[in-house]
Specification:
The complex is a heterodimer of chains A (243) and B (279). Chain A has a six-stranded mixed sheet with strand order 6-7-8-3-9-10, sandwiched between helices. In chain A, 33% of the residues lie in helices and 25% in strands. In chain A, a hairpin with a 2-residue loop joins strand 4 (56-61) and strand 5. Chain A is of the alpha/beta class. With 279 residues, chain B is mainly alpha-helical. Chain B has a domain at 66-211 and 237-263: MetI-like (MetI-like fold, Orthogonal Bundle). Helices cover 83% and strands 0% of the residues of chain B. Chain B has helices at residues 2-13, 20-34, 46-58, 61-93, 95-109, 117-124, 128-152, 156-164, 169-205, 212-221, 225-278. The longest helix of chain B is centred in the last third of the chain and has 54 residues, at 225-278. The radius of gyration of chain B is 24 Å and the shape is flat. The chains are: A alpha/beta (243), B mainly alpha (279). The interface between A and B is medium-sized, with 24 and 21 residues. The complex binds adenosine-5'-triphosphate (ATP) and magnesium ion (MG).
């Protein structure tokens, strides 16, 4: 269980990025985080994985406070962040430093295969397109099978086809070892198709505005009329549609 | 005409293009002296320079001078690089050390290095130690500045990725900071080596009984311009060769950058060609 307990964040420049946020995510739950730009989603994820310390409050993972990055918590950043001097294969292997050499190879191969980068295993990041680089970053985050996976707009740089493929891929992974997933997205449909629960954040100061349990069975069809009803509702919450 | 065009294409392909002008220059220079257009006592023809080199080499004198100069550069480079690497790493990684040391080092840097010579001679004598130290001072600053800047410019975002994946301390340095810094460090080493060659000449001009710099002065004092030109050429050759060696070593570690550059150049060439086709 991942518990974000009264976490607030004020940056050195005085900006209140998060006013106290409370969020509890059960083991194996999929939570989608939506909200307008600048409302503190990335900040919340960074605090949740221990990269940033909260001004007040704490993050507790399975009873232990998270004060610095831990190997059970993986994160996909908003940008690919690949090491430019490593090939795609080595970049994915970067996440496996604690695994024996003999175990690394097959794990990397499988991860690359799933994101469709097998043919580019030996390419350098500079030779990849933006979408390919992001897929490599996703492979790197998934390859070590963290029990909690935080994803910051993981698919927003991708074309529609790849995006659908990777959404399914994410669900496949989830079915296999049921990691806790917290992902940020600007795509409401994506949130609806993937999430058990959708959390809506608002800015100034960053806070949780509403939460909805999406109790529809999986796999969900994107054209499902029930999703359309939710969509309307969420758009209203985000002030994107006049009430 | 056809044969000439064929030859031209052959040269273009074989990467000998860089030799075209030097060879032309040598021919012009040779004929200028040969036909008495310039006085051979001021500018001896290349053939005379070559003969002088051969004579020096035969007597064994040349090898001795080269060895002495190479050793000075090697010692100075090693010393300067060592000091610069330790201090550059310190000031690059640690804010505290940078604030402690960098202002002093920057102040020292603004002193023209030749100004140290009298002091070094007084302290270390007129022999090797003072020369090596002067060279080391020259080598120090480019290496130090590049290493410090290189470490500071490492992308914070990549460091975060490493932290998330459990890299700390030595592992963080070994797998992220070091490879990220290496290209700038090697730029610094090459700059340092270049200055090392400059300073070895300065050191040898100011009083030496051996070395290529001594040969220069000797040629001047005995009125033999061929020797001066020969030493200048030797400095050029060794400077270039040592830089190439360093670049080659560097390329083994920073090949990822070069292959990126190569890919870009290929792209540029491709667009060149397509431009031609359009015309
Ligand atoms: N290191 C920092 N120092 C100061 N302010 C920051 C810092 N990081 C983020 N902020 C501010 O905090 C607020 C929230 O930023 P955050 O990146 O969390 O937003 P976001 O919800 O992820 O936005 P987006 O959807 O555009 O990615 C923004 O106003 C931003 O300017
Ligand atoms: Mg963000």
């Amino acid at each position: 269980m991942l518990r974000i307990d009264r976490v607030s964040k004020r940056f050195e420049n005085g900006l209140a990025a998060l006013s106290p946020v409370d969020l509890t995510i059960e083991r194996g739950e999929i939570v989608g985080l939506v909200g307008t730009s600048g409302c503190g989603k990335s900040t919340l994820l960074r605090i949740a994985c221990g990269l940033e310390t909260p001004t007040t409050g704490e993050v507790i993972l399975d009873g232990e406070p998270v004060t610095e990055p831990r190997s059970e918590v993986g994160i996909v950043f908003q940008e690919p962040r690949l090491m430019p001097w490593l090939t795609v294969r080595q970049n994915v292997g970067f996440a496996l430093s604690k695994f024996s050499k003999s175990r690394r190879g097959p794990l990397i191969d499988a991860a690359l295969h799933k994101v469709g980068l097998t043919a580019f295993a030996d390419a350098l990041p500079q030779q990849l397109s933006g979408g390919m680089a992001q897929r490599a970053a996703i492979a790197r985050a998934l390859v070590a099978r963290p029990s909690v996976l935080l994803l910051d707009e993981p698919f927003s740089a991708l074309d529609a086809f790849t995006r659908l493929g990777l959404q399914d891929h994410l669900l496949d992974i989830w079915r296999e070892d049921k990691p806790t997933l917290l992902f940020v997205t600007h795509d409401i449909e994506e949130a609806l198709v993937l999430s058990d629960r959708i959390v809506v954040m608002r800015a100034k100061p960053g806070r949780i505005h509403a939460q909805y349990e999406i109790d529809l069975p999986r796999p969900r069809r994107r054209a499902d009329p029930r999703l359309q009803v939710w969509k309307e509702r969420l758009l209203q919450d985000l002030d994107l549609v006049a009430a | 005409m056809k044969a000439l065009a064929f030859l031209g294409r052959g040269i273009k392909r074989s990467g000998l293009l860089g030799f075209v002008f030097p060879v032309l220059l040598l021919l012009v220079w040779e004929s200028l002296s040969r036909f008495g257009i310039v006085r051979a006592s001021l500018l001896p023809p290349p053939s005379a320079v070559a003969l002088t080199l051969r004579d020096l080499a035969r007597s064994g004198e040349l090898l001795g001078h080269i060895e002495v100069t190479l050793m000075r550069v090697a010692f100075g480079f090693a010393g300067g690089t060592l000091a610069a690497t330790v201090l550059g790493a310190l000031t690059g990684y640690s804010d505290l050390w940078r604030r402690l040391l960098d202002p002093l080092l920057q102040a020292i840097r603004s002193i023209p290095s030749i100004a140290w010579v009298p002091l070094f001679v007084l302290w270390l004598g007129i022999f090797e130690a003072s020369k090596d130290t002067l060279i080391a001072v020259g080598v120090f600053f480019p290496v130090y500045l590049n290493l410090m800047a290189g470490i500071q410019q490492v992308d914070r975002k990549l460091v975060e990725v490493a932290r998330v994946h459990g890299y700390r301390g030595v592992a963080l340095v070994r797998y992220v900071l070091l490879p990220a810094t290496l290209p700038t460090y090697i730029t610094g080493l090459r700059g340092g080596l270049g200055l090392g060659w400059m300073f070895v000449i300065a050191a040898e001009l100011m009083g030496a009984s051996e070395g290529l710099g001594f040969l220069l002065i000797d040629g001047q004092q005995t009125g033999r311009p061929a020797i001066i030109i020969a030493s200048i050429l030797l400095f050029g050759c060794f400077g270039k060769l040592s830089d190439m060696a360093l670049a080659r070593i560097g390329q083994r570690f920073t090949g990822w950058q070069d292959s990126f550059k190569a890919a870009k150049e290929k792209e540029a060439n491709a667009s060149d060609r397509s431009g031609l086709q359009a015309i």
